[in-house]
TrEMBL record:
Keywords: Signal. The keyword Signal applies. The keyword Signal applies. InterPro entries: AB_hydrolase_fold (IPR029058), PAE/NOTUM (IPR004963). It comes from Rubrivivax albus. Pfam families: PAE. This is Pectinacetylesterase. The lineage of its organism: Bacteria, Pseudomonadati, Pseudomonadota, Betaproteobacteria, Burkholderiales. PANTHER family: NOTUM-RELATED, PECTIN ACETYLESTERASE 4.
């Protein structure tokens, strides 16, 4: 069923029975109660948003991105590497400037010019306000920047997702097809909480993960930083986000994911694929992503943070990022139900995220893939396995951005 026909059918249904369809095709806010454990980082209520359709019972859940924090300034949203929404999620968030300027994806935009099959599904948007990539379960006090005014940070990402999934099951029932997707921190969160959400919702049809620009790379506990550069980040977040504590996400995996190694956060990717062999798992990131890589290494390596110029900065950054990506891709390549899509570069947002705004500039032309959208639809439809990694030797730097993407880029530049 093409996009035009779906939209026409929806319009006719609305005209025919306006009272019956009240509440469809609009973003409705759900505020989770405090007893659920759900909370934003500042302790305010956690809110998420649901956009329902009467056309089917399929469900697309989008996890918002927006940095991460393990120090006071970042948890307050300060600086280039700060976490988003430090003051919580307002009830009108879906009409906010942050969302309106395109930091959402075609997967939850019914009128996006970038056609995807989920435009006719029920949609859920999970805002991000905890600084823990939707995964933490600990209240941590940070006073390293402002000792006289400590930040009490509720790293409640896991509770937020768990309570939202239960609300969806109680109010929408079992979905037919299920898609979990997210970008940046949401790419991590959609991966780390995939099993928890899937087990709660129990979809009757196909279930798919499309995790954008949030790779959990291998980093065995006790390994040397020169061998596994992400280990410094992983060791830090284990403590401040409570991942290893009772009720933490890692301890939850013991009875949920087969083959997960609690001493290696990056093992979750392969463990998920083995636990759910009938599901499809798609992972994507740009080779030259200088945003997620900065979060992974900049605060832990002085040759990056103190680099004298942009060239030295990128060299120091990519000397860690590219080996970690190589190991990550090698792990994923071992699984028959995992797809991998790594284009080289996009002249937008520091080559960070393939799925925000639209999919322009995401082709891997030498492989015959015209955009990430083709990759995504192939994964959801259970087409042939696709595993593509683009390096500088085969990259195409001439891919144009869409007119809308260029307009958004200009507006963001003007705003600041």
């Amino acid at each position: 069923m093409n996009v035009w026909f779906r939209r026409s059918l929806a319009a006719l249904a609305l005209c025919a029975t306006p009272l019956a369809w009240a509440g469809y095709f609009q973003w409705d806010m759900v505020e989770l109660p405090p007893e659920s454990g759900a909370s934003c980082g500042d302790g305010s209520p956690y809110r998420f948003f649901v956009n329902r359709t009467p056309l089917n019972n399929h469900l697309a859940i989008v996890y918002e991105g927006g940095g991460a924090c393990w120090d006071q300034k970042a948890c307050l949203g300060e600086g280039r590497l700060g976490a988003t929404n430090p003051n919580g999620v307002p009830p009108d968030y879906m009409q906010s400037v942050n969302v309106a300027f395109g930091l959402v994806t075609p997967f939850n935009a019914r009128n996006s010019p970038q056609a995807v099959s989920t435009q006719s599904w029920n949609m859920v948007f999970l805002p991000y306000c905890t600084g823990d990539v939707h995964s933490g379960s600990k209240v941590t006090v940070y006073d390293d920047a402002y000792p006289d005014n400590p930040r009490v940070q509720h790293h409640a990402g896991q509770a937020n997702v768990r309570a939202a999934a239960q609300w969806l099951r109680d109010n929408l029932g079992q979905p037919g097809e299920l898609l979990l997707t997210g970008y940046s921190a949401g790419g991590v969160g959609s991966t780390t909480t995939y099993a928890m959400v899937r087990e709660t919702l129990q979809p009757t049809g196909r279930s798919t993960l499309l995790a954008d620009s949030g790779p959990l790379v291998p980093a065995p506990r006790g390994s040397a930083p020169e061998d596994f550069p992400a280990i410094k980040l992983h060791d830090t977040i284990r403590v401040v986000w409570g991942l290893d504590e009772p009720g933490g996400l890692i301890t939850q995996y013991a009875g949920l994911i087969d083959g997960f190694d609690p001493d290696n956060l990056g093992s979750v990717n392969v463990a998920l694929a083995r636990t759910y062999p009938q599901d499809r798992f798609g992972f994507m990131v740009f080779t030259r992503d200088t945003n997620f890589s900065a979060f992974s290494y900049e605060k832990f390596y002085t040759d990056i943070s103190d680099a004298p110029n942009p060239v030295a900065y990128r060299e120091a950054l990519f000397s860690r990022w590219w080996p970690d990506l190589d190991r990550w891709a090698a792990d994923l390549a071992t699984q028959p139900n995992v797809d991998l899509y790594v284009p080289y570069f996009r002249n937008f947002n520091q080559s960070h995220c393939l799925t925000i705004i639209d999919f322009s500039g995401t082709a891997i032309e030498w492989a015959g893939v015209d955009s990430f959208g083709t990759f995504a639809e192939n994964a959801m439809a259970r087409g042939p396995q696709v595993q593509l990694v683009e390096g500088q030797n085969n990259a195409d730097f001439t891919q144009p951005l869409s007119p809308f993407m260029r307009l958004v880029k200009l507006l963001l530049k003007v705003i600041g």
